[in-house]
Amino acid sequence: MLPxxxxxxxxxxxxxxxxxxxxxxxxxxxxxxxxxxxxxxxxRFTGEPVNLDGSLNLDKVTWLxxxxxxxxxxxxxxxxxxxxxxxxxxxxSHVEDGISALRNHRSLHDFSAFx
Length: 115
Hints:
The protein is mostly helical and 115 residues long. It has a single domain, classed as Arc Repressor Mutant (Orthogonal Bundle), CATH 1.10.1220.160. 62% of the residues lie in helices and 3% in strands. It is built from six helices and two strands, in the order βααβαααα. The protein has helices at residues 10-23, 27-41, 60-64, 68-78, 84-102, 108-114, and strands spanning 5-6, 58-59. It has a two-stranded antiparallel sheet with strand order 1-2. The radius of gyration is 13 Å and the shape is globular.
């Protein structure tokens, strides 16, 4: 299980906030899309420690929303040996990987056509 409070890297948070300014999509929603895009692309967390230095300290329910069970199941399937904190790092790494494909959209129309 993921911890109840979760963080991202500061750089990832800035990209999510910038995407919100362009598209109006909240960072927690775009983080879910980014996570799923990353999983779909085949990216895998290496296990290297990740410095989660972002200031957005949101609870798991806010970050994951209605996809909480799906995201936790995917993480457990791909990383069964990881602890709760390591799963948070894996989740954050997937969001960081996935946001790279989304961060350049300048409007909601561009974003929705891509997703």
